[in-house]
Amino acid sequence: MSGSYYVPASSKWPALGSLAVGVLMAGTGMLLVHGSGSPVMVIGLAGVLAVMALWFRDVVRESRQGLYDAQMDRSFRWGMGWFIFSEVMFFAAFFGALFYVRNFAVPWLGGEGEKGVAALLWPEFTAHWPLLNPPGDVAGPREVLSPWQLPLVNTLILVSSSITLTVAHEALKEGYRATCRNWLAGTVLLGLCFIVIQGVEYYEAYAHYGITLEAGIYGATFFILTGFHGLHVIIGTVILATMLARIHRQHFSPDHHFGFEASAWYWHFVDVVWIGLFLFVYVF
């Protein structure tokens, strides 16, 4: 294709995006450790959202100008595939921490295994998960959330959202743009419902169950796993809303819609992670 290119044009957005994420993480760390830093966190969040919006704009413009050839399409697919793989490793680390604590550290403190001598540190400690009575001076949660209430509702919502997104994708491939738009709008709505319900669950955890980041290892692992997943749901919902706007503007065709496809890959990955969270954080 004349005028197409394989290596994308130089862009300032990766550097600015990294800077915005760094500011966001610094502000978040200040808030969690020192109780201050909200302005820094808000500035970082605004920067991340701004970079996302402007970067999306440039990519859409390049795509609409026909600058992406078949080799560029393959590059995008490999890039998205490796990005999702990095996300798999990201969550594997947190799930690994949860499994290590549950299957090794807690039993050792209870006197089991070859390192059971650790039980001498807190002789009164009883090894049980969820850990409601951590050793030492740490106050654990009063009780844990039932998996068969809000967590189950959110599971049904995310599973349903994968179905509606798949229907939207198949409709787009068949050229049924209105059908695609309607089902995609339903997916975005389900994503928003999940976010709202997660917020309600966090309020209940803090206000009524004593589950906080300071509530021992259970509180820490609970909020790290569900919190990072919730952040991914928010990002995924923003991306799907962007795809919805592009569908409305007639941007995709049945044969050329990798932006939509990549967002679908991301969303399905987020759904699979939630199923793991539901099983290993809430149920077992």
UniProtKB/TrEMBL annotation:
It is found in: Cell membrane; Membrane. GO terms for biological process: aerobic electron transport chain. Belongs to the cytochrome c oxidase subunit 3 family. The chain crosses the membrane at residues 12-33, 39-57, 78-101, 148-168, 180-200, 220-244, 265-283. GO terms for cellular component: plasma membrane. GO terms for molecular function: cytochrome-c oxidase activity. It comes from Billgrantia gudaonensis. It comes from the Bacteria. Its EC number is 7.1.1.9. It holds the Pfam family COX3. This is cytochrome-c oxidase. It is a multi-pass membrane protein. Keywords: Membrane, Translocase, Transmembrane, Transmembrane helix. Residues 1-284 form the Heme-copper oxidase subunit III family profile domain.
